[in-house]
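Holo model, zinc ion. Inputs:
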Amino acid sequence: MKLDDVDGEGFQIEDRRGQRSASDGLGGLGAVLGGKGAKAGIPALILVVIVALVSQAGGGGGGTGGIDDVLGQLTGDGARSEAAPASAGGTKDEQYRFVGDVGTLLEDYWSDAFDRSGERFEPTSLVIFDAPTDTGGCGVGTPEAGPFYCPPSQKIFIDFGFYRRLEEQLGFGGDFAMAYVLAHEYGHHIQNLLGIDDEVRKAQDGASQAEANALSVKLELQADCFAGVWAKSAYEDQRLEAGDLDEAIDAAQAVGDDAIQGANANQESFTHGSSEQRKQWFSTGFETGDPSACDTFS
Ligand SMILES: [Zn+2]
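Output:
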């Protein structure tokens, strides 16, 4: 990714590496997931909130070619012009700067989108951590859980060790793989601002496990799609380099439930979607550059 001109200072990062926090006395995840409400109306609501974002999509839908064209341009020789910041010799400070720059681009993109559609935007912030930490409403965050977004505190939590493990275990890597993960978590923040995750949690309350899982998959796939929408804006700003898009697509596939569960994968237990679905929704976001194309619920 080309980020030389980005001033990453604008994106709020809290660096908790090296800190230990007491892991007792913190609210459980159940508090976040609770809530009562009717099951109806989810697709309708999501359509409404997403249609509100259509008007800001600008020329995103047209002209610049589908993902295959772009893949052709960006993957030609398979060159990876940048090493993975997480594990290929990058220092912690490089990683810190990288997520700061990408976070700034995400914030710029989504705040503009909200401004144009008259929605009220609030920035998220990023917590970098490497030991159990207070999430401010989602219980204790542990590095083992991988990156996540906590709606009550509106914060994204990332442990850089997660990337190392992904690379070792799933062959995942590259700077744009990390950008994809951050963009996916940012997508959860967008869902929070639009009230989408709230509606999903209400619908999950009292639903069967299989239904609740299916809703969770839709939420996750929408976050992948939102990540693709943002990636399109980075592409249009000529920030992508050879191999970048492949890295994101590989990463989306690597974190598919079937890839993680392996040969005994059980679709009903999926909470994030299959590799194929994750790749597909990221690509839909990228091809259209349009958040309204991310209606995974209908
Ligand atoms: Zn997610």
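Residues 1 and 240 are 5 Å apart (CA to CA). The beta strands are 13-15, 125-128, 133-134, 140-141, 148-150, 155-158.
Archived with the compound record.
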